[in-house]
Amino acid sequence: MNEEQLVRAVARGDRAAFEELYRRTSPWLAVRLRRRCADEQVVAEVMQETYLAVWRAAGSFAGAAVDGTAVGWLWTIAARRLVDAFRRRAHDARPLPAVEAAPAAEDEVLAGALSDDVGGALRDLAPELRQVLQAMVLDGLTVRETAVLLGVPEGTVKTRARRARIAMREALS
């Protein structure tokens, strides 16, 4: 069974399918969350909330996620749960530990999957511009969610998104 079939089986209450979905996707999801948050407790809470949401809402999966797959749907849920966790922490006024920006395998694969021109333009973007593009375009987050995720004001996100679009346009022309 592929992930989409597993989600549909989970929607029918199949615990074995849920366990298999978790076994296949949780390592990848944990790594992706850790790239955005260094607090293991927050990552663990987000993982738990994500899979609880998957169990409860598997029937709403229609293949219309960010990339049309169950994995994209799962990441959308997790990214939104992470933003919620950041909001809770900001409200409690406890800062989250920062993660040092390091080139990630995900970024390398993305750049390699794109044409040479687009991949090169993406690699040449300043890291803060690339982060905004990743959050808004690849992860499908809103400006507000991106601002919370990156810990910057919404206006900064908008400015960086505009600068990234201009830089990409110039690099590709």
TrEMBL record:
<dbReference type="InterPro" id="IPR039425">
    <property type="entry name" value="RNA_pol_sigma-70-like"/>
</dbReference>
<keyword id="KW-0805">Transcription regulation</keyword>
<feature type="domain" description="RNA polymerase sigma-70 region 2">
    <location>
        <begin position="21"/>
        <end position="90"/>
    </location>
</feature>
<dbReference type="GO" id="GO:0006352">
    <property type="term" value="P:DNA-templated transcription initiation"/>
</dbReference>
<feature type="domain" description="RNA polymerase sigma factor 70 region 4 type 2">
    <location>
        <begin position="120"/>
        <end position="167"/>
    </location>
</feature>
<comment type="similarity">
    <text>Belongs to the sigma-70 factor family. ECF subfamily.</text>
</comment>
<dbReference type="GO" id="GO:0016987">
    <property type="term" value="F:sigma factor activity"/>
</dbReference>
<dbReference type="InterPro" id="IPR036388">
    <property type="entry name" value="WH-like_DNA-bd_sf"/>
</dbReference>
<dbReference type="InterPro" id="IPR007627">
    <property type="entry name" value="RNA_pol_sigma70_r2"/>
</dbReference>
<dbReference type="Pfam" id="PF08281">
    <property type="entry name" value="Sigma70_r4_2"/>
</dbReference>
<dbReference type="InterPro" id="IPR014284">
    <property type="entry name" value="RNA_pol_sigma-70_dom"/>
</dbReference>
<dbReference type="Pfam" id="PF04542">
    <property type="entry name" value="Sigma70_r2"/>
</dbReference>
<dbReference type="InterPro" id="IPR013249">
    <property type="entry name" value="RNA_pol_sigma70_r4_t2"/>
</dbReference>
<keyword id="KW-0804">Transcription</keyword>
<dbReference type="InterPro" id="IPR013324">
    <property type="entry name" value="RNA_pol_sigma_r3/r4-like"/>
</dbReference>
<dbReference type="InterPro" id="IPR013325">
    <property type="entry name" value="RNA_pol_sigma_r2"/>
</dbReference>
<protein>
    <submittedName>
        <fullName>RNA polymerase sigma-70 factor (ECF subfamily)</fullName>
    </submittedName>
</protein>
<keyword id="KW-0731">Sigma factor</keyword>
<dbReference type="GO" id="GO:0003677">
    <property type="term" value="F:DNA binding"/>
</dbReference>
